[in-house]
Design goal:
Layout lengths: L6 E7 L3 H12 L7 E8 L4 H6 L9 E6 L5 H11 L4 E4 L5 E2 L3 H4 L4 H11 L3 E12 L3 E2 L8 H4 L10 E3 H7 L10 H15 L5 E14 L13 H11 L1 H7 L5 H10 L4 H11 L1 H11 L1 E2 L2 E2 L7
Parallel strand pairs: 1-2, 1-4, 2-3, 6-9
Antiparallel strand pairs: 4-8, 5-9, 6-7, 6-8, 10-11
Length: 305
Amino acid sequence: MDRKKGVSIIIPCYNAGHYLLELVISIYNQPLLHPYEIIVVDDGSDDKETILLFQHPYFDERIKFIRVGQNSGAQRARNIGLEAATFDYIFTIDADDKLNTDPQILKGGTYIDRAIGILSSDDDVSFVHSQSLMFGEFSGPTISSHTITENLVMHKHHVPIGIVYRKSDARSAGFYCECIKKWQDWSFGVALLNARYKLGKKNKIIFLDVPYYLYRVHRSLSRISQVQLDEKIMTTITLKKYPEIFHKYYSGMSDGEIVNHVLRNKPSKLTDLLYVASDNLPRALEMAERRHFVGRGLGEPAGIP
């Protein structure tokens, strides 16, 4: 097997030692057919539990550990991991999440193996994503666990963190934009699509309707998704960085008009639920009941993705 036809698994970590071991074990328990490396980028952790964890026996030669002296944010940590990656394919996962190790889920192949198979055989595919299953303080599929397209991404539908993509595409995109502090996954998805669009490539996105990715739900205020930032500013930065693909979809509009249009028309969770229903109606009905979608609004708990 081609040495480069493997995956570099990049894990940015900041004071998440109490979760990181679970993640590493879940990776070790994947029956992967392709070679892999795990790159943990410790983003200036200062809590003793995290620092001591790196001396754990599980942290062996299969893990490349890179320590950053000062906390610089997840985007910088991901870029450091990308720069160190030796394989052609990349999978990034947050330190507090993990991969599904249920044998019934994996009997058809692992997420990473299936994704590499798709990307290596079809150059028109920009990235692969899977269904995400929540655990912790809430359970069930995330609302964005449905098929997405380039068109939907450019209308601000969510792009998951746990996509599998080519390192070459990330390099063409300029890696992760470190000035994006929130909505980072969407912004990076736009970056990949824009880089490929500029090269005249197609942007098919493949959805594997299997709960390979396990997303931890908790109330920690340190999670980026709960940080209060101006979405208009983050969207504007993304547009300025990757203008070509925005103007493909919003021809004749000024940058300010594009940003306002995108934010004004971004999908609600109810809209996402309808997309889930188009893939799997029974799942959508179960999600609606679990999340307490009622009447014209939502009655679900706050902070549930």
